[in-house]
Amino acid sequence: MRAQFVLSEIGVGLRRNLTMTFAVIVSVALSLSLFGASLLMRDQVNTMKGYWYDKVNVSIFFCNKNDAESAANCAKGAATEQQKNDILAELHRLPLVQNVEHETSDQAYKHYKEQFGDTPVAGLVTPDQLPESFRVKLKDPTKFDVIKSAFSERPGVEQVQDQRDTVEPLFRLLDGMRYAALGVMGLMLVVALMLIVNTVRVSAFSRRRETGIMRLVGASSFYIQLPFIMEAAIAGLIGAVFACVLLVGGKYVMINQWLAKQIQVINFIGWDSVLAVLPLVLLIGLLMPALAAFFALRKYLKV
After folding, report:
1. Which of 43, 42, 45, 40 is nearest to 247 (CA)?
2. For the chain, where are the alpha helices, taking DSSP H only?
3. Angstrom distance (rounded) from CA 233 to CA 163
4. Strands 97-103 and 133-138
5. How far apart are CA 297 and CA 293, in angstroms?
6. Strand 58-62 to strand 157-162: parallel, antiparallel, or no bridges (unpaired)?
7. CA 165 to chain centre
8. In 3-state terms, what secondary structure has residue 167?
9. Which of 9, 22, 57, 60 could bond to 135 as cystine, CB 3.0-4.6 Å?
10. Angle, nearest 10°, between helix axes 18-53 and 168-206?
11. What is the pLDDT of residues 72-129, one digit of tens each?
């Protein structure tokens, strides 16, 4: 009988405040979808970092005959074979070096032509203008500073370049988008909590006669509060379900059907990342409104 009464009260409350309940569902769905998206974006950034950092190299560019005036280490002209061999031997002795590849000027020019194709820029460079280099693969890409400090001031070395610099701006952009999503999520969360509190207050006020009768017959405070808490929890759970639908739909439409086909060089997150986020979204959607309603009732429902 008690369970039936509580369920009937929940149904009455949801029907009486249908508009505000719908607003709670929408705000919770939007805030939790942004929360889930920020978690997935964090996983995407970590996946991309692991993928690209594993592929980037440290490049040691040697002086050629055209660098005598542009680089301090190249004042004596192009790097000699002895200088190159000494650096190669030292690289092989370093435990953090995985392997070293030698790229000649002709190979560098070939890669340059592949990059720029038939554009006007491609005709401005000749093979002798591009420097030879050692492409150093590190076991830990974050140890770039060790290579830079060891070889950047060596005679015959024009510069030591970390290829991570070319991908870091993308990672910073993605991190900025994730923080922006978290900021909007926080704002939507505040709106959702305010709506939940107001909905509970209106519901408690509209049923003050029923709660008064329940007090007179000796009902406990928790028993009186339970229908209101359950109403908020159900609305939050429905919003969380919609948020999960948005996340799954976004993964399928935005990533699988569009981005993965347009940008094939990026290793996008899989369904395992999405499925790992969904239970957390559902749990927050259930507990957050229930706790908000509980604390609101302690202040506004005199029991």
Report:
1. 40
2. 2-16, 18-53, 81-93, 105-116, 144-151, 168-206, 208-216, 221-250, 260-262, 271-300
3. 50
4. antiparallel
5. 6
6. antiparallel
7. 19
8. coil
9. 57
10. 160
11. 777 777 888 888 888 888 888 888 888 888 888 888 788 777 666 555 555 667 777 7
